[in-house]
Amino acid sequence: MSTTLTKSPGAPSATGKARRNRSLVDLVLRARELSIAAALAVLVIGTAVVNPRFLSEQGVKDIFLNASILALLAVGQTLVVVTRNIDLSVGSVVGLVAFVVGDVVSGTDRGLLPALAVGIGIGALCGVVNGLLISFLRVPALVVTLGMLYVIQGVDYYVAHGEQINAANVPQSILDLGNGGVLGVPYLPLITVVVMLAVGYYLRSYSSGREFYAIGSNPEAARLAGVPIRRRVFTAYLVSGVLAGLAGVLWLARFGTVVADNASGWELKVVSAVVVGGVAITGGVGTVYGAALGALLITTIGSALVVLKINAFWQDAITGLLLLLAISVDRVLALRVTRALKKRSRHHG
Question: With 116 labelled, which of 82, 103, 245, 349 sits at a CA distance of 20 to 30 A?
């Protein structure tokens, strides 16, 4: 005799609960990103009222050009941070790649493709070293990437020997990438947007992409569910390294003249952009779109301070304040989401 188990009409399925929980988290993320966009709009409008030249065609173009490299690095950093890790080596990778690539192509007829190959190759190598040490040897990410930062800086200074790369010696095809555009839109922001959309689509639409969030949300539960944690963490660092290598080539293309300490200190600026953009430093929450918005906000603050003739040193103070505020907001939102989920669970239990 068989027995059929029936579910009462009011009892939600596990899948339904997961979907509702996910929708609540998505709602919080969208609200966070909209608040960043609103703050950015207020900043731009307020600065433009004081100095209308802030919204001139060249002014807007400069903001997007300056933000594009930071946003590109923020996209790679997002992959790392959502897995409860951090990459402090990205700024030094950018500086090393910019100088080495500039040295390789200076005074030659080597074009853009060789430059990209060298730059992305160096970035990928740094990402592989970080990924292997952190994911397979289980060395703390903070220790590995901080050590990598100093190693790369030492190599960069050794290679540079106090010299610099001059824009006059860089092939025109590379300089055109940093200063040209299509239909009036510069290439650099277009490249960043394409990368951002591709990574964002992957994280949201593929099960392997969602596993990055599972690792950050609950590593033990992810392990029990069969998520290949080591492989995903390694991939995150590899992508971060590749994008840092690409950013180094774009740095050379944008500025032309390069010295050994380019992008020094940018690792903290990248982390700030990611956290301000709504990516929780504790992992599991955030999007590449929010991280890119955070990068744009931080860059716009710097440009606004220049236009308003305020000491640029205040930018660091404001960035630090935004970072503290973002972490505090993350904590408050996390507590509210947890309480809301508990109430829903009790209500439907």
Answer: 82
How far is Cα 144 from Cα 140, in angstroms, rounded to an integer?
Answer: 6
d(CA 22, CA 72): 27
Backbone angles phi, psi at 106, to 5 degrees: -60, 130
Cα–Cα distance list, 51 to 65, 304, 313 (Å): 20, 9, 20
- Please tell me what DSSP assigns to residue 206: S
pLDDT digit string, tens, across residues 261-292: 888 889 989 998 998 888 888 888 889 999 99
- The backbone region for 334, taken as left when phi is positive above 0, alpha when psi lies in -120 to 50, beta otherwise, is alpha
The two structure tokens encoding residue 345:
């669970």
Taking the domains of the chain in order of start, what are their residue ranges? 29-334
Which pLDDT belongs to residue 309?
81
Whole-model pTM? 0.86
Are the CB atoms for 74 and 224 separated by under 8 Å?
no
Q: Distance between terminal CA atoms of the chain?
A: 30
Amino acid in position 168: A
Q: Which segments in the chain show pLDDT lower than 50?
A: 1-19, 21, 24
Look at residue 175 in the predicted model and tell me its pLDDT.
92
d(CA 22, CA 26): 6
What's the sign of the alpha-carbon dihedral 178, 181, 187, 189?
positive
Closest CA to 81 of 276, 221, 242: 276
Q: Which of 222, 276, 305 is nearest to 70 (CA)?
A: 276
- DSSP one-letter code for 310: -
Asked whether the beta carbons of 149 and 85 are under 8 A apart, the reply is no
For helices 314-348 and 14-50, what crossing angle results, to 10°? 150
Distance of alpha carbon 151 from the chain centroid: 22
List, in sequence order, the alpha helices (H) in the chain: 14-50, 57-81, 90-105, 112-131, 141-160, 172-179, 187-205, 207-217, 219-224, 229-255, 266-276, 288-307, 314-348
Rounded-to-integer distance, Cα 276 and Cα 294, Å: 5
